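retry 2 of 3: previous attempt timed out while embedding adenosine monophosphate. Reduced batch size to 1 and resubmitted. Inputs unchanged:
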Amino acid sequence: MNVRTILATKGSDVITIRPHQAVREAVRLLARHNIGALVVVDEAGRPVGIISERDIVRAAARHEDRDVCAMLVEEIMTRDVVTGTPQDDVHSVAHTMTERRFRHLPIVEEGRLVGIVSIGDVVKAQRDLYRGEVDTLQTQIMADEPQNAS
Ligand code: AMP
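retry 2 succeeded.
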């Protein structure tokens, strides 16, 4: 199964924010959409970073003397954003997210943002895959049982 299959179910909507917007706006968007990260995009819609709730918590801990909500997204976002493609295999995406310790992977095709997958989407896709494999094996075992032999 690849990322394109996940996006076919969950859609290609990505909630984005610009680098010069305030963290306050990022907090509002995260809460309104019930999500954990926003892709930070330039004027052409290309990803230039990612800001997750973890970045906001870290900034609040690091800058106890400042109003983190008044800071700019670009001050606390992660700039080296790792992206995937629709062709990526679900298992390799799970491996990347686990090894790199992040829970969000923006999906890019021909330089365009075409979706985002979260670790929750990946775990669900893997569970569905394994369920399908278990069903197939059970069907094969039942077909091979002696009483079913002709
Ligand atoms: P997360 O687990 O996704 O909430 O993010 C944990 C940390 O990794 C935060 O500092 C994020 O900015 C960063 N992060 C999340 N997703 C990515 C990604 N795809 N590429 C690079 N950094 C990321």
